[in-house]
Amino acid sequence: MILTTLLTLAAVAQAVPGYVNELESLEKRQGSTTMLRFGCSQVVIDRLDPLVNPGQVPSTHVHQIVGGNGFNATMPVTDVSTLADCTTCQFSEDFSNYWTANLYFKARNGTYKRVQQGGAALQFNDKVSTQIGGGILIYYVSASPGKITAFKPGFRMLVGDPNQRSRTGTTLKRQNCYRCYTGPNFGGDNAAPCQDAKLDTEKFPTDVCKGGIRSNVLFPTCWDGKNLDSPNHQDHIAYPKSGPANFLSLGGDCPSTHPVRIPQLMYEVVWDTTPFNNKAEWPADGSQPFVLSTGDPTGLGQHADYVFGWKADSLQKAMDASGCMGAKCASLKTQTIDPMKKCAVKKVVQENQDGWIKELPGIAMPMQMV
After folding, report:
1. Are strands 136-142 and 34-40 parallel, antiparallel or unpaired?
2. Residues 248-275: what's their mean pLDDT?
3. What is the average per-residue pLDDT within 280-301?
4. How many whole angstroms separate alpha carbon 218 and alpha carbon 239?
5. E strands along the chain, which residues?
6. pLDDT for 149-172, tens place per residue?
């Protein structure tokens, strides 16, 4: 146990420097934390949203999607691992789908261009995740192995509000944040996400980020134990009574209405904003030039969708294991980057994806149901 704890602390120190003291305290209270950290390359960029706009083609804004190739405009509440035959995720038994809004640069002349996504920083000797350019880095945390219930087949959820443009409270400041990299090679990546207001912001950074911008989105960690979904895709999940848990933390007690602890799920997206660092191309008023595909120039509307799709009980086994770190855990199977990038979904909504455009793809275009 002592050796396991020391190994765990060393691994997390490598992953999130500056967070060791908090983790040491956590270890003394709860045992050896497990943190899966793995890359998923892009499966498609499309204007589809089977959660919020099921069957609607196109949906209201563009998303970046990773995971299983079962992704579609309509995804039934069922075991989606049976709908896919490949996945873009490093754990080959994970056929889940994960998606977020895209980021665009708005030039001084009013035109837009999609910002490309980069790979992840090298941690835990995981070279595959450094090659997922265009993808998302996924985290599953079990802060108390043996007491965390993995998601069930058919489970899905949404976090964040794409329509939010202002926020009065700070409840979510540790659940949705941006890191302005200070230089190449993930400069400034020296602490856990969403913990320090000097490092991370709730809104888009206002100045040039010399190494790009990172977005982290964390999901609630309590479930009602009954419903796989809810009408707004949020009511069946909740934060602990004391508020959102910090990254890698179990947090407070779950509310009586949502008594089941579920894994702490976090998405991490790195946008390569460096091609747009010339302020002469920024808006004339000097404001920051980036907008989400929802048209949000603040960044507060960042959101994330999730459809669970791990095979059988593979995720539960990982959440029960003690001390797993990175892209290796217990008997979970992994794959190399080549099959990950070969897995794809055919694009449905044909739009200019990477060129300069006069307006963001959105609801102005006609829609149809499928």
Report:
1. antiparallel
2. 96
3. 95
4. 11
5. 34-40, 42-46, 56-57, 63-67, 97-101, 103-106, 112-114, 136-142, 156-159, 176-180, 200-201, 213-218, 222-223, 237-238, 260-261, 264-271, 290-292, 304-307, 325-326, 368-369
6. 999 999 999 999 999 998 887 666
